[in-house]
Amino acid sequence: MGFDTRQRLVTRLVVAGLVAGSAAIIGAVGARGAAPAAKMAARALPGAGTYKVDPDHSFVYFSAWHHVVGVVRGRFDKVTGTITAVPDPDDCAVDITIDTATISTQITERDDDLRSADFFDVKKFPTAKYVGRGVRRAGDRWVMDGTLTIRGVAKVVPLTFTFKGLIPDTPPGKPARATFHGMAETRRGDFGMIRDNLMELGQPPAPGADVQLEIDVEADRSGPG
To answer: Are residues 32 and 76 in the same domain?
Structure first.
């Protein structure tokens, strides 16, 4: 066997080894990646039951346009309610109450203004509500076409959310605790908050939402579905 022939044979063996090794590595990585994917699919919704929102670990965050190009961020510090999970997605439900007086943007003067009659009017409307029934899949998330009520005005506002899983270190004898993260968007003017809109949103006001909402919830299972 000549040198060139031996060299070609060695090269083929090396290439074949690299291909086999790469296939083994890819297969191992795929196997490791399959477990989280399966786990995510399995926890797409929590087990059937009624889950009570824990106000100490649940918050509604918002960001709102400010002078067209800026953004003001804040949150509501008291959220209560229930989440009902059942096998049929059409019968899953939420009933969430937000204490509007707990609004906080970390600026006292601004917070007092937001509590006034020009905005949330907390003396007349101390709470906001989000109520809905039925969810549908949207990729790896869920969507609920619930009704948001602020200042006595009710509007359908789709909520896109994920069930993040059960907290693994719940003390023995304590109920399972489920965690959720949701997002939605709306327009302040739809709820009668129109003061400063020309200054805040421009003329004419840009189409689409001017307020984005995020909600993080921890909820304890309190009963069967």
So the answer is: no
The greatest distance separating any two alpha carbons of the chain, rounded to the nearest whole angstrom, comes to 97
**DSSP for the chain?**
--HHHHHHHHHHHHHHHHHHHHHHHHHHHHHHHHHHHHHHHHTSSPPSEEEEE-GGG-EEEEEEEETTTEEEEEEES-EEEEEEE-SSGGG-EEEEEEEGGGEE-S-HHHHHHHHSTTTT-TTT--EEEEEEE--EEETTEEEEEEEEEETTEEEEEEEEEEEEEE-TTPPTTSPPEEEEEEEEEE-GGGGT--TTHHHHHTTTTPSS-SEEEEEEEEEEEEE--
Residue 26 scores a pLDDT above 70 = no
24 and 110, same domain (yes or no): no
Under the banding of pLDDT at 50, 70 and 90, the label for residue 198 is: low
